[in-house]
């Protein structure tokens, strides 16, 4: 009964590094229909295990729809075994999107934790023509979680990497890279996506330095369309659904 | 073969077919909804509304369990006044009957909501009786007397027909069902969710913010089915059945056990098209089995 439910063929579904998969779907949306930051709610199994759909950030949408994911749980593991040509039942594009920088913005910062880097790939395409300073701070566990980041470089971003084990880039959390941000530039917008502790440290940082920031959040979801009220997050203006009011929120509004 | 009849009645009120959505699984009218498809349902049950706005429970509010989900949303809603002003007109525009689900913390709250809705031309109210019976340890739906009192009182003030939604968390649901009938309920909704919990063993914390919640989905279907059957043995009051209905076969089981109507709940989250696929499947089943009227199927279970 939804306008956003569709079935689509898998074009490819393969590893892009030891830990991450890229899923490409044979589906295109016009610029009016889709924006960076939105997500898909994908039925990964025809049976009851798992029961819920699984939400995934849309990583790219210039041509086909793309999803970057890490097979860690039951749903993502099943998805990683799907072959090209198989059909997936998908809801999307769902949720809101990143708000593009205002005209007075001089510095764009992506802060990504792990597979939270996904929505920034497509967003960097959108920001290619932006002439100011553009950087991405990408924090992962090990070098096995890094992949070819030329897409960001080609879109004019300088790339900085941190790994928990020091196997690539700076050793430590992504917060070790915050020094790359010119905090004196008040025309700065930070876009943040990653695990909760990272979102929290990014929030502390942007509040301390009085910078604007949008964060893309994740919660366990059932419907994905705002119906079940299951995936709420606490904000200064009450509970909001990650699926429908979000997934993108003003980072400073979130109460951890 | 002549046209198959899918029309069913609750009292004197006729529905175009016996498929609806369970409250809380449909929301109000969401931006993605296709009205033309919605119009094919027998009725719509929006999310339960309360007298005053409610923020709902702390996160996490849902967790997936084996063939089911536990939820503890806490009836997050904007309250009856805002519902009447902002949501109901759009729902009524769809053109199929709206069954308004309401819940009160006290009998008085039920009455005040029902009175406010009297000006809205509502065909049916569904009383969500799985709410604490203030001053008692039990839920209203766990207490025959409270069930009777609440239904009788609402029935007296409301212009709408009354459906009582019962909790399965009771020793004998047929006893509560009889009290509801005595209170002059026009129909029963069977059943609400089952008390349940899940634990994160690494952190030793509950996976639901409110510690416990209500289990729904395919895991509860056989139990819900037995409760519909049990109630059907003691009364002829129309039953709207719900509990893990995922496809037309599940729906048919409930109808054969004695349900006049079926409500699709958790399945809406997984396949939003499930209610219409169920409707289609039922139609095909009737055709294949040479049954010209769905009413012939209701309660047609053969037992020795």
Descriptive report:
The complex is a heterodimer of chains A (256) and B (304). Chain A has helices at residues 74-80, 118-126, 150-154, 196-208, and strands at residues 5-15, 21-25, 39-43, 54-57, 65-69, 87-94, 107-113, 133-140, 158-163, 170-171, 188-193, 212-216, 232-235, 238-241, 248-250. With 256 residues, chain A is an alpha/beta fold. Chain B has 304 residues and is an alpha/beta fold. Chain B has a single domain (8-296), classed as Aldolase class I (TIM Barrel). In chain B, the strands form 4 sheets. Chain B has a 7-stranded parallel β-sheet. In chain B, α4 (144-157) runs parallel beside α5 (173-182) and α5 packs across α6. The longest helix of chain B is centred in the last third of the chain and has 15 residues, at 274-288. The model of chain B has no long low-confidence stretch (mean pLDDT 95).
Summed up:
The complex is a heterodimer of chains A (about 260) and B (about 300). Chain A is α/β, with parallel strands linked by helices. Chain A is about 15% helix and about 30% strand.
Layout of helices and strands:
The complex is a heterodimer of chains A (256) and B (304).
Chain A (H helix, E strand, L loop, with lengths): L4 E11 L5 E5 L13 E5 L10 E4 L7 E5 L4 H7 L6 E8 L12 E7 L4 H9 L6 E8 L9 H5 L3 E6 L6 E2 L16 E6 L2 H13 L3 E5 L15 E4 L2 E4 L6 E3 L6
Chain B lengths: L7 E3 L2 E3 L3 E3 L13 H4 L23 E4 L2 E4 L8 H14 L5 E4 L4 H11 L6 E5 L15 H14 L3 E5 L7 H10 L4 E4 L3 E3 L2 E2 L4 E2 L6 E4 L4 H14 L4 E3 L6 H10 L3 E4 L2 H4 L3 H15 L16
Parallel strand pairs in B: 3-15, 6-7, 7-8, 8-9, 9-14, 14-15
Antiparallel strand pairs in B: 1-2, 4-5, 5-13, 10-13, 11-12
Helix pairs in contact in B: 3-4, 4-5, 5-6, 6-7, 7-9
Question: What would you call the structural class of chain A?
Answer: alpha/beta
The appropriate CATH architecture of chain B is Alpha-Beta Barrel
What gross morphology of chain A would you assign? globular
The first-to-last residue Cα distance of chain A is 35 Å
How much beta of chain B, percentage-wise? 15-25%
What is the number of helices of chain A?
4
Share of β-strand residues of chain A: 25-35%
CATH domain fold name of chain B: TIM Barrel
For CATH, the homologous superfamily of chain B is named as Aldolase class I
Low-confidence stretches of chain B: none
Q: Could you say which structural class the secondary elements and strand pairing of chain B correspond to?
A: alpha/beta
**How many distinct domains of chain B?**
1
How many DSSP H or I helices of chain B? 9
CA-to-CA gap between the ends of chain B?
A: 31 Å
The biggest beta sheet of chain B reads: 7 strands, parallel
Just give the CATH class of chain B: Alpha Beta
């Amino acid at each position: 009964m939804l306008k956003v439910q569709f079935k689509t063929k898998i074009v490819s579904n393969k590893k892009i590094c030891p830990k991450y998969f890229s899923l490409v779907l044979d589906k295109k949306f016009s610029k009016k229909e889709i924006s960076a930051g939105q997500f898909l709610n994908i039925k990964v199994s025809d049976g009851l295990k798992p029961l819920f759909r699984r939400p995934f950030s849309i990583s790219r949408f210039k041509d086909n729809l793309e999803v970057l994911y890490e097979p860690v749980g039951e749903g993502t593991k099943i998805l990683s075994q799907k072959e090209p040509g198989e059909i997936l039942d998908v809801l999307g594009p769902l949720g809101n999107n990143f708000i593009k920088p205002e005209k007075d913005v001089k510095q764009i910062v992506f802060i990504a934790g792990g597979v939270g880097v996904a929505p920034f790939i497509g967003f960097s395409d959108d920001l290619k023509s932006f002439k100011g300073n553009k950087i991405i701070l990408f924090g992962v566990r090990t070098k096995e979680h890094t992949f070819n980041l030329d897409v960001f470089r080609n879109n004019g971003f300088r790339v900085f990497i941190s790994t928990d084990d020091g196997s690539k880039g700076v050793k430590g959390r992504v917060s070790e890279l915050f020094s790359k941000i010119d905090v004196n530039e008040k025309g700065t917008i930070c876009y943040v996506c990653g695990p909760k502790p990272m979102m929290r440290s990014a929030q502390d940082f942007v509040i301390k330095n009085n910078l604007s920031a949008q964060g893309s959040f994740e919660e366990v979801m059932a419907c994905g369309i705002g119906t079940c009220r299951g995936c709420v997050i606490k904000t200064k203006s009450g509970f909001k659904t990650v699926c429908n009011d979000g997934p993108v929120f003003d980072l400073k509004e979130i109460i951890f | 073969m002549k046209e198959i009849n899918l029309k069913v009645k609750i009292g004197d009120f006729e529905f175009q077919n016996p498929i609806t959505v369970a409250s809380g699984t449909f929301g109000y009218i969401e931006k993605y909804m296709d009205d033309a498809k919605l119009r094919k349902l027998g009725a719509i049950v929006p999310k339960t509304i309360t007298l005053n706005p409610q923020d709902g429970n702390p996160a996490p509010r849902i967790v997936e369990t084996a063939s089911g989900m536990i939820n503890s949303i806490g009836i997050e809603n904007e309250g009856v006044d805002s519902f009447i002003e902002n949501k109901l007109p759009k729902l009524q525009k769809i053109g199929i009957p709206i069954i308004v689900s309401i819940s009160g913390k006290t009998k008085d709250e039920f009455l005040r909501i029902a009175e406010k809705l009297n000006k809205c031309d509502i065909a049916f109210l569904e009383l969500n009786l799985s709410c604490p019976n203030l001053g008692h340890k039990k839920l209203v739906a766990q207490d025959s007397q409270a069930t009777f009192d609440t239904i009788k009182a609402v029935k007296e003030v409301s212009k709408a027909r009354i459906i009582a939604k019962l909790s399965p968390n009771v020793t004998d649901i047929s006893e509560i069902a009889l009290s509801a009938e005595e209170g002059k309920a026009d129909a029963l909704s069977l059943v609400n969710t089952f008390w349940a919990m899940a634990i994160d063993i690494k952190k030793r914390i509950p996976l639901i913010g409110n510690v416990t919640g209500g289990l729904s989905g395919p895991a509860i279907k056989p139990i819900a089915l037995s409760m519909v059957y049990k109630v059907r043995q003691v009364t002829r009051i129309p039953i709207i059945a719900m509990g893990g209905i995922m496809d037309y076969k599940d729906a048919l089981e409930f109808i054969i056990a004695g349900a006049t109507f079926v409500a699709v709940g958790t399945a809406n989250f997984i396949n939003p098209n499930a209610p219409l696929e169920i409707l289609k499947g039922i139609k095909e089943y009737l055709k294949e089995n040479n049954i010209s009227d769905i009413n012939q199927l209701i309660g047609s279970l053969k037992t020795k």
